[in-house]
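Suppose you are handed only these lines of text.
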Amino acid sequence: MIDRRSPNDKLLSHDASRLEEAAGGPIDLAIVLGSGLSSALRDSFSHVSIPYDTLLGMPVASLRGHAGEALVGTWHGKRVAAFAGRVHLYQGFSPIQVTVNVRLAHAAGAKMVILTNAAGGLRDDMQPGDLMLISDHLNLTGRNPLMGYPHENPFVDMLDAYSPRLRAIAKSVVKPGVRLSEGVYAGLLGPNYETAAEARYLRTIGADAVGMSTVLETIFARCLGMGVLGISMITNIVGAPDTNHAEVTAQGAASGPHLAELIGDVLGKL
Ligand code: HPA
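From them, the structure of the protein bound to hypoxanthine can be written out as follows.
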């Protein structure tokens, strides 16, 4: 078979050792932080920061500015690596590159991953600031990270890809006043937001929220046998006028503390 692993994958064991060293042992779980969420998590547990540009295999979005960092530490007794910053297909990265975080976490020992994202709400009962547990997804990116990847079984079972057990735990710990629903996340390529016709189409095919990440990471995590908890922060309502990135990021930052608290409470129950 053609070896389609990125050269980055060959560096994973080096990077995994760095995470394990920083955590004082194998990582129990990884968290991937969506737009605006990083600062809330930074304040939630004591950690060391490993900048992505010091990890040999981690793709970085830009040579200038803030490329991202792994926040590694112990939270509720669990060794955690939280990835503050991810790369996206719409930035021109390949499906293999956007899933390096998942393979790195797995190589460092993680048995589960909590994937978070900013998403547009498609349901009438949603409002910005809501959280949505992802019950299932529609991979509408037209891409798949397992295509050509030399894994012994790429024919991954995706029923209950988003762990019912982890979702039940999340529902059991949610604090009063936090609006948490459950629904189907549609993952699109982006980077533009949806046309009115696309929004109608997404509702018709059963999507409750739409975003530009997460689905490929879930596919790879399931291929590796990891448990997945997916949580969307509804940052805007699809179809509302003038949706823009600044609004999405600002609402992500505003909802961040609620989501960080929910994640901490889930960890406490594992
Ligand atoms: N559409 C797609 N992706 C998004 C949105 C949206 O409305 N909001 C945040 N990410």
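What can we learn from it? The longest strand covers residues 227-237. The chain has eight helices and nine strands.
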